[in-house]
Amino acid sequence: MLITIIRLVILYCMITLAIRLMGKRQVGELQPTELVVTILLSELVAIPIQDNSLPMATSLISGATLISLEIIFSVISLKSKRFRELTQGTSIPVIVKGKLDTNQLNNLRISLDDLLEALRQKDVFDVTQVDTCIVETNGQISVLLKPEFQPMEKGKKQSGKRGQSL
Questions:
Q1: Which listed residue, 27, 63, 78, 117, has the most CB atoms within 10 A of its CB?
Q2: What is the CATH number that goes with domain 90-149?
């Protein structure tokens, strides 16, 4: 039993260090490749915890290799736009100049209801106020309102009538 606890502590420290090396803050901020690495790490660590007859070095070496690959891929992603697009995807506009692009929604497998919910979470309750809406690579949306619906900045005068419908 003591051997299992010692192995668990060592592997716990390894995973904690690995996540710190990858530089992630929350699971929601993980790119797809980073999520895969995290899942694989948990599987690699579970095996020697469950079976004390297996050498721990196998998991440590496999985990270090996996982490090294992730760090190498992240460096390549920084330097190569093409590689970054391949591994992380690209942002996709779903509303452009006030027009909803249903083809892009279908490609992303996002329903109109899901888009409207995401807009409401950004305090946009009327889709006709949106000039541009982009689905980012992490699944979040970025919204740019039409000029007449943008909040007035402090110290600037608003030109035109605010809040009128077309």
A1: 63
A2: 3.30.240.20
